Prior knowledge:
Elements: H1 2-5, E1 10-13, H2 16-22, E2 31-34, H3 43-48, E3 53-57, H4 60-73, E4 78-83, H5 96-107, E5 113-119, H6 131-148, E6 154-159, H7 163-168, E7 173-175, H8 178-181
Parallel strand pairs: 1-2, 2-3, 3-4, 4-5, 5-6, 6-7
Amino acid sequence: MEALEAGQTLFGESRVQEAKAKIPLLPGRARWHFIGHLQKNKIRQALALNFELLHGVDSLQTATEINRIAAEEGSRPRVLLEVNLAAESTKFGFPPEMLRSRMEEVFALDRLTIEGLMCLPPPVMKAEDAREYFVALRNLRDHLQTQYRIQLPELSMGMSGDFAVAVEEGSTLVRVGTAIFGERTGKAWKPQADSAFDD
């Protein structure tokens, strides 16, 4: 609420259950993006929350399932495709070569509006070390636009520790949470009994 009153209107949430608790507590002028890994069993709930944008669509299977449920629910979600640039086994995302060769299959999913790409670089010691991954995502986006004659205006890249470098390399959306709200405790968020929301 403090952030909203200070002029921040766009919020990202990485957990569907927490979004269900938080969204009703803020005024309608607050806008919401889903920025976490979207599990298949949470897709219907996420669509019901009417996020403006889903940042982490990470596979053709997930995209297909979102498309199917969106058709059932009568929605047309806006999405970003998550790319696993470093082929990390601990992270989700399309391999870049798959998007280069099979983007037509993704665009055939007629309920989805694909607006761009997203990445989470590997952990780095300093922000500058993430630059190569931001450059790689921008170059991949440019290649896909040329190859498939499409527009992918959004690049979601950069977080609290490296967002300035990401913006220099063309990021249109940065996911800055820790720098504003502090470190997560690991526990699920719950409204506090003495919260300012309780009136």
